[in-house]
Design a protein that fits this description.
Chain A: Keywords: Cell membrane, Membrane, Transmembrane, Transmembrane helix. The complex is a heterodimer. By secondary structure, chain A is mostly helical. Chain A contains 13 helices and 2 strands; from the N terminus they run H-H-H-H-H-E-H-H-H-H-E-H-H-H-H. Chain B has one domain (about 1-290): ABC transporter involved in vitamin B12 uptake, BtuC. In chain B, the strands form 2 sheets. Chain B has a two-stranded antiparallel ribbon. In chain B, strands 2-3 form a two-stranded antiparallel ribbon. The chains are: A mainly alpha, B mainly alpha.
């Protein structure tokens, strides 16, 4: 490896005790409520923001495995599919049920959260199954196994009647809101950041830098790898569930190898190991095609050019990966977070080692 | 019984093609320890080159023996050049970097090629699959009973070509100076360079050889499938890669056996279960093999040193 640039551990003292518990969540809720109120009469904007949010969750969660643990997983869309389908099926079955003591909207949200959690847990179970082979497999081989798992999940979904086979599921209640998506974005980022600073995170970094050495130093490499997979796939499942509840139809075509690669590109572009990098890259890469499309249609270029944006996107992603690896293999931010990279216009206190 | 025999023949015919593509993965992995994800897409580009050549030759010319030879030669040489360019500009600069960077680059090239070829700008063919011209006219070579078992001529021809290429490769690797250089580079490319082996040239040649093999195999596949599409590289390449890993990547006879086994397994799944499960079974089989033998059937797991 090149000179590793592991961020300094955020010692417990760096984060005020008040911010380590439930307080951030309590602070986030009113902001999200306000956000929801502002977004309420802009359906396209809230759809777009939801897609961005789902992609952020996917990128940040994949970053836990690919970036922090250094286990290259290329089947993330499979976990997303598990979450989307399980949550979708559950919501379809709970559609008519209502909690009589709550208003309809609130009762919908309760069921929505319940199906999200079930979807997430199902995905986490799959993550556990994928993590297990990492007992014996390393590096490239593990990448292939994750790819295989993703494809197997897709084929299983495609052949199951309950999941609508190739047609997919339709009629899932559209109960997802941007506020809900961003609540989960917030939780994912919180978990990812808390992992980085924890002793758990230090073990993951150690595995990333040198697995054999980490094992020799007494790190339970298998255990940590499996746990990273479980956490990562849980959030991927949640992202899938959220996705299923704001697009009209989900089908196996939404969760192919291509989707997995899109997420990998986001993580690699942002910098393997950088949570904020993953967020920035996910936002940028999701909005870019939309921006280009509207730019082309404003410019009045031939209608075809605006439609071609999606076609051109994939080859450009491929070339982007190549150029990035040649020019800046560590991604835009490397393992650093955005505030380590941006000019320091916010004065910061530095304690101990930087 | 006859049905079983027919499945066996079809499986072997499909397996030889997987085996040929898998050989390319194995060779590149052998010298570079790199999973060349773009291998299948190089194959796809080769098939399009063959397609264009076959059309340029015209109907009468392309079904003659000379025409077939020209189609194969153009595709294989073209792919060798493409392989050289990819190695020179995408992989060589990364040789001393962590292996993950090269893997990501390979995935990037694979995406650029397979999705780039789906555009319909200029000479690019567009996303729709196209019918591959009949380079080898299909003839029933052997018919047993009342058409219970049919062996087609292209099956025999591709089996023959595949076996010839495999034997040739085995000879090249174990009986020639270049093969010895390849094995030395595979063992330790730094020490090999110190011993006076032109490492860069050996690696470039290995890449060109594997790409040319891929083009040949791809043409055989296109003749069998009678179609060509920009995404064929992703799927055939993935399957061939699975075959290479099952056999133990880096092991030449292993790739061949892995390809044959995979071809047979897939054929039996399609024949006796449901065709929609084919891809899942291929990957399930791979995971099973890797769990039992992490280095593949014939591979060895090298102990890692710190």
């Amino acid at each position: 490896m090149e000179t590793p640039a592991i961020p300094a551990p955020e010692a417990g003292s760096a984060v005020p005790a008040s911010l380590r518990g439930i307080l951030p969540v309590m602070l986030a809720l009113p902001v999200l409520a306000l956000f929801q109120w502002l977004m309420s009469d802009a359906p396209f904007a809230s759809y777009l923001l939801s897609v961005v949010g789902v992609n952020i969750i996917l990128a940040v969660s994949l970053n836990i495995v690919n970036g922090m643990t250094g286990q290259f997983s290329i089947g993330h869309a499979g976990f997303m599919a598990v979450g989307a389908y399980i949550a979708g099926v559950m919501s379809l079955n709970l559609k008519e049920v209502a909690l009589s003591f709550l208003p309809v909207a609130a009762s919908d949200q309760v069921f929505f959260v319940a199906s999200l959690l079930v979807g997430g847990l199902a995905a986490a179970l799959c993550g556990f199954l994928v993590g297990l082979p990492s007992l014996r497999l390393r590096g490239d081989y593990l990448a292939i196994v994750t790819l295989g798992f993703g494809e197997i999940i897709r084929v299983v979904v495609q052949n199951t009647d309950a999941f609508g086979r190739a047609l997919g599921l339709s009629g899932i209640p559209q109960t997802s809101t941007p506020a809900m998506v961003y609540f989960w974005v917030f939780l994912t980022v919180l978990v990812a950041r808390r992992i980085t600073g924890s002793s758990h995170g230090r073990s993951l970094w150690a595995i990333r830098e040198d697995e054999v050495a980490a094992e020799a130093m007494g790190v339970d490499t298998t255990g940590y790898k499996v746990r990273a997979f479980v956490i990562s796939s849980f959030f991927a499942g949640i992202a899938g569930g959220l996705f299923a509840h704001f697009v009209p139809i989900i089908n196996p075509g939404s969760f192919t190898f291509v989707k997995s690669m899109e997420i990998v590109v986001m993580v690699v572009l942002g910098g393997l190991g950088s949570t904020t990098g993953a967020i920035v890259a996910a936002t940028f890469l999701t909005l870019l095609p939309e921006g280009l499309r509207s730019l082309f249609s404003v410019l009045g270029a031939e209608g075809s050019l605006a439609q071609r944006v999606d076609q051109i996107r994939m080859p450009v992603y491929g070339l982007l990966l190549v150029v990035l690896m040649l020019a800046r293999p560590q991604g835009l931010f490397g393992t650093k977070e955005i505030w380590d990279v941006l000019p320091r216009w916010i004065p910061r206190k530095r304690k101990g080692l930087a | 019984m006859a049905q079983l025999l027919q499945h066996l023949i079809n499986g072997l015919a499909a397996g030889t093609i997987y085996a040929l593509v898998a050989l390319g993965y194995t060779m590149v992995y052998g010298v570079l320890k790199l999973i060349n994800f773009a291998h299948g897409d190089v194959m796809m580009v080769g098939v399009y080159m063959g397609y264009a050549t076959a059309f340029a030759l015209g109907r009468d010319m392309r079904s003659s023996l000379l025409g077939v030879a020209v189609v194969f030669a153009v595709a294989m040489l073209g792919c060798a050049l493409l392989g050289f360019i990819i190695e020179r500009f995408a992989y060589r600069p990364l040789r001393e970097k962590p292996r993950l960077t090269a893997l990501i680059t390979a995935i990037g090239i694979s995406f650029a090629l397979s999705y780039g070829f789906q555009l319909d700008i200029g000479f690019l063919p567009g996303a729709a699959p196209r019918a591959f011209p009949e380079v080898i006219e299909p003839v029933e070579w052997l018919v047993i009973g009342d058409r219970d078992v049919v062996v087609w001529n292209w099956q025999v021809i591709s089996f023959g070509i595949a076996v010839t290429l495999m034997v040739g490769l085995q000879f090249l690797v174990f009986r020639t100076r270049f093969g010895r250089a390849m094995r030395a580079v595979s063992w330790d490319h730094r020490v090999a360079a110190l011993m006076g082996i032109p490492t860069d040239r050996v690696i470039a040649l290995t890449f060109m050889l594997s790409s040319a093999l891929a083009a040949g195999a791809g043409l055989l596949y296109a003749i069998k499938d009678t179609s060509v599409s920009p995404l064929m590289g992703l799927y055939v390449g993935l399957k061939a890669f699975v075959a290479a890993v099952i056999g133990g990547i880096g092991h030449v006879p292993g790739a061949v056996i892995g390809g044959l086994v995979l071809g047979l397994v897939e054929e039996f799944v399609v024949g006796y279960a449901a065709s929609t499960w084919r891809d899942a079974v291929a990957f399930g089989f791979l995971i099973l093999v890797l769990l039992v033998k992490p280095g593949g059937l014939f591979g060895r797991v090298a102990a890692e040193k710190v």
